[in-house]
Design brief:
The chain is an alpha/beta fold. Helices cover 33% and strands 20% of the residues. The protein is globular, with a radius of gyration of 22 Å. It is an enzyme of class 2 (transferase).
């Protein structure tokens, strides 16, 4: 009789749209005030967008499901009990889904964007506050209390999990680690951003980062977890330097064949014809930095740019929409299943991600697997130098702009070399097998995952 498989809990609360696309997603095409055509998803609701953290979690989960002795369970949250009219699935591709429904999550998020909860002061007025605040006040006695940072998460306790894996150095991870400590099970925290290893976390200073996460909770996640998993050698070295902790190195996973034709789904309407430059990110001024993309696009009026940008900072979004030149088209969201065809339509992929805040952008892997040349302001984990997939510009906007022009004169990328590099260091099956070995060792010998 085979022993029961190890139940592995993977926690990335916002990852549901990376696993189950929103059922009601569709696109609107509208003419802007200056006569240009703007394409956007409608409606794009809170919780329907996701990024590299969620993609990496789901990639790892579904490849862990191929391990005979491991049963992955993803812990997720949504603000609605059904996917439009369809019930949420309990299992996808061999991975069980444990979905918590928090009907007020979207409203609370919107209010939190407008009000500083610590000072109780309005930072940005929205007319929606006139009904959102009374609704939250009336329903407060009937709503579950928020999980407390660095304390066991009630949504996770008692789930009979053998190993916990949390993604991101965050307050959520602090609660996962506290849950694991309570239940005496091993915990892994996966660093997803270089900002998760910032200087302030090595001190006792109390502060909040750009996303509102407290330093004490993030510090707890790093120091109290049994194992810290890093995306790059830089993060391994940084973890050792700041906290004298040995990290486990697991570079971001990708299933390369998913990004080569034939594709299961065609590209959506804005991408059905080849175009010059693709950019993917969110509206912010510190991490993805779309305004830098506009700066380069204005100097290259003969090239066509398509920017897929997720909501984040309404002020930055407003600036980007106002300042975008005629050769830039803004797209709000593209279903993940259609992204391989989107990359295939682009002649070039560009990244303006900040070295300070990025960990390792999954979009670089996706572009490389799609055989789409890359130009990046920074070379994260020396990926471009090591793989040969593109050009890094060492944060020089002048070099960046010049390099965007260069691929349209010549493409000397050795794609067989790129494929070999991806297979060696980023293959999803290999990374999952490596992680499975760490899981087994953490259970048999909780203090040792290093060999």
């Amino acid at each position: 009789m085979n022993p029961k498989p190890f139940r592995v809990g993977l926690v990335a609360w916002h990852a549901l749209p990376a696993i189950v696309p929103p059922a009601a997603a569709h696109r609107n095409v509208a003419e802007t005030s200056d006569g240009r055509i703007a394409t956007q998803s409608a409606p794009t609701r809170f919780g329907e967008t996701f990024g590299g953290l969620e993609t990496a979690m789901w990639t790892l989960a579904r490849h862990l499901a191929h391990q005979a002795d491991i049963e992955p369970i993803c812990f997720l949250e949504t603000d609605r009990p059904r996917n439009d009219s369809i019930p949420w699935p309990s299992e996808v591709q061999g991975v069980k889904l444990d979905i918590s429904v928090n009907r007020f999550r979207a409203i609370r998020h919107a209010v939190g964007d407008c009000i500083d909860t610590e000072s109780k002061r309005i930072q940005r007025f929205s007319p929606h506050l006139l009904w959102q605040l009374p609704l939250l006040a009336v329903t407060r006695p009937f709503r579950s209390r928020d999980p407390i940072d660095s304390q066991p998460d009630p949504r996770l306790v008692g789930k009979s999990i053998d190993v916990w894996i949390s993604f991101g150095v965050s307050s959520s991870s602090s609660r996962v680690v506290a849950t694991a400590t309570l239940e005496q099970t091993p915990s892994f925290v996966c660093v997803r951003s270089n900002a998760g290893l910032e200087d302030g976390l090595a001190t006792d200073t109390e502060y909040r980062n750009e996303c509102g996460e407290s330093s004490s909770a993030r510090r707890f996640a790093l120091l109290q977890s049994d194992h810290v998993v890093c995306q790059s050698q830089w993060q391994v070295d940084r973890l050792k330097q700041l906290f004298d902790r040995d990290g486990l190195l697991s570079r971001n996973p990708i299933h390369r064949e998913d990004w080569q034709p034939p594709f299961p789904m065609p590209a959506p309407e804005p991408f059905t014809q080849p175009f010059d430059v693709l950019w993917i990110g969110r509206y912010d001024d510190f991490h993805k930095r779309p305004l830098l993309m506009l700066e380069a696009a204005k100097k290259l009026p003969n090239l066509s740019f398509k920017m897929i940008a997720n909501p984040f900072d309404p002020d930055i979004e407003s600036r980007v929409r106002q300042e975008a030149p005629e050769n830039v088209e803004l797209i709000d969201r593209v279903p993940f299943a259609q992204m391989p065809a989107v990359f295939a339509a682009a002649k070039l992929f560009v990244s303006t991600g900040s070295r300070e805040h990025e960990g390792f952008p999954n979009v670089l892997l996706q572009a490389a697997a799609s055989h789409t040349p890359i130009v990046s302001l920074s070379d994260h984990d020396d990926f471009l130098v090591r793989s040969g997939a593109g050009v890094a510009c060492d944060e020089s906007m002048e070099t960046f702009t010049q390099s965007i022009e260069e691929p349209f004169r010549r493409d000397a990328t050795d794609w067989s070399r790129v494929d070999e590099y991806l297979d060696r260091f980023h293959d999803a099956g290999g990374r999952a097998a490596e992680f499975a070995n760490w899981i087994r060792r953490s259970i048999s010998s909780p203090t040792d995952c290093s060999h």
